[in-house]
Amino acid sequence: MLGENDGPSMIAYAADGAQFGVDVFAVVLPVLFAMAYVCQEMCMRVGAVTHRGYGELVLQRYGRAWGWFGAADLTLTNLVTLVAEFVAIRVGLAWFHLGAGIAVALGVALVLFTAAGGRYWRWERIVLGLAAFNGLFLIAAIVAGYRSRSLPANVSLDALPHASTTTVLLLLASTVGATVTPWMIFFQQSASADKGMTPDDLRQGRADTAIGAGLAALFGLGALVAGAVLASSSGVINGYSGAGFPAGVAHATGNLPGTLLALGLIEAGAVAILTISASTAYAAAECAGVAHSFNYTPRAAFTFHGANVGIALLAGLVVLIPGAPLLSIALNANVLATVLLPVTLVFALLLANDRELLGHAVNSLRTNVFAIITIVTVVLCGAAYAIFSFLEVVGVVN
Amino acid sequence: MHEPDEDVELVEHLESDQLVAETMKPVERAQLSPLTIALLWALRVFVVVMGVMVVYVFVATL
Questions:
Q1: Interface test with B, best of A326, A380, A390 (most B CBs within 10 A)
Q2: Contact between chains at A69 and B23 (C-beta distance less than 8 A)
Q3: Which pLDDT band, with edges at 50, 70 and 90, does A333 fall under?
Q4: What is the mean pLDDT of chain A?
Q5: What DSSP state is assigned to residue A118?
Q6: What are B's interface residues with A at a Cβ cutoff of 8 A?
Q7: How far apart (Å, rounded) are the C-alpha atoms in residues A123 and A116?
Q8: Chain B contacts of A295, Cβ < 8 Å?
Q9: A343 vs B contacts (CB less than 8 Å)
Q10: Where in chain A are the domains?
Q11: Which residues from A are below 8 Å from B23, CB to CB?
């Protein structure tokens, strides 16, 4: 679940705080993470009971067309999101005067290193170890909040009602897309199966997911509060190409919070690169019907490991293209994820209600209600932004 | 959940013979009602149209 707090997500939360303060989003973020919990619990349960990944089950249960449609949908979203993750690492490294080449080399080396052990548990423990550093956002918020004496005044912002419709819709869509993501649906179910979870592990799986959701919400709030500090200064996070976010906070509150945020961004990007690459690998290998596990060597699961490393490498190469529109890609990554998410969520809901597959482990009425509310929210946010921004670009509305 | 040592045993003995063999058998195709199929097609069209709009806006605002 901590993988949800990826680079663009943390930057999006900080941008929310910088532009609109913490009032609204301090309520919105925990609600969104509750939605993410509902989705991930369903996937963990389906994976544990069926021992099959998401892509594999959709393909077998609903046909090849849907399986490949979902995998293609995921690959596109993942590629764009991975570019944004490399950008986040680059933002963090820029604080330490290191460039894009180091960011790409670091990300790809991590993917190779974690997969090299030939065991799922080794991969998982490395990712969990790295994810612990997501707490840096909370520490940064505490330090920045303590040093910024004017924070209480800054956070009572009522800028939201005065923002343009497109800005509010973009903000909503990107914040939803930052919290409930397609790659996490694929990853959660496939990883639960790969881990060897069984129905006996469901209670621990739920606790694991809930703790992850709670920590992710807390650390996300940390980024929100740290960003709110900027509302007192320029109020602007100054782009992705420089060290805008850490430098902005450092300018307002001193070097320590800036350093913590830079390290946090490196961690958030690195963990997300590992999980997003893994979700692509699971989806590709499951749909191709070949070996799909970290427990297999690269020779025994060539497609799986090839997709895992390949998509990270491809995204890294995009980041290295001179003049590539990285800022625009990073800003649109979460929006694209929100727009493409409904298909993934609907099939997750169908699978979690499939009595032939799950028996008594199917969704309760309460889970179905929460899941449907989540899907409707995602559809409305994504559609509202897509339609309104499209009409604005073609000149139908101003 | 298994400890690493147990995982090794699982992979070497149980998973390779039993769990993997069991999961290699494809599950049966779901029988969907005409309404569900229509809704899924509507969803597919919706996602493609929305995706095209977002990509268009992305390209147009570069």
A1: A390
A2: no
A3: confident
A4: 84
A5: S
A6: 1-2, 4, 7-8, 10-11, 15, 19, 22-23, 26-30, 32, 40, 43-44, 46-47, 50-51, 53-58, 60-62
A7: 9
A8: 11, 15
A9: 43-44, 47
A10: 2-393
A11: 51-52, 193
Is the pLDDT score of A243 beyond 50? no
DSSP class of A290: S
Q: Is the dihedral of CA A113, A118, A124, A126 positive or negative?
A: negative
- How distant is the Cα of A69 from the closest Cα of chain B, in angstroms? 9
Query: pLDDT (tens digit, 9 = 90+) per residue, A25-60?
Result: 888 888 889 999 999 999 999 999 998 989 889 989
pLDDT band for position A163 (cuts 50, 70, 90): low
Mutation for testing the B interface, residue in A339, A343, A375, A379 having most B CBs under 10 Å:
A339
Q: What are phi and psi of A324, to 5 degrees?
A: -65, 140
Please name the residues in contact with A319: beta carbons below 8 A apart, sequence gap of 6 or more.
A83, A86, A87, A90, A100, A103, A104, A326
Taking only the tens place, the pLDDT of each residue in A206-238 is 999 999 999 999 999 999 888 887 765 544 444
User: Is A332 in contact with B19 (Cβ distance < 8 A)?
Assistant: no
The closest CB to that of A390, out of B10, B15, B53, belongs to B53
Give the count of beta carbons closer than 10 Å to the beta carbon of residue A344: 28
Query: What's the pLDDT at A152?
Result: 42
Assigned token pair, A21: 């303060």
Task: Please give the ipTM for the structure prediction.
Answer: 0.73
Query: How distant is the Cα of A392 from the closest Cα of chain B, in angstroms?
Result: 9
Q: Does B47 have pLDDT greater than 80? A: yes
SS3 A150: coil
CA distance A190 to A249: 38
Residue A36: closest CA among A180, A206, A212: A180
Structure tokens at B45: 């069209």
pTM (2 d.p.): 0.85
pLDDT the model gives residue A44:
95
Q: What is the pLDDT of residues A7-18, one digit of tens each?
A: 888 887 887 787
A219: exposed, middle or buried (Cβ count in 10 Å: 0-12, 13-18, 19+):
buried
**CATH 1.20.1740.10 applies to domain A2-393:** yes
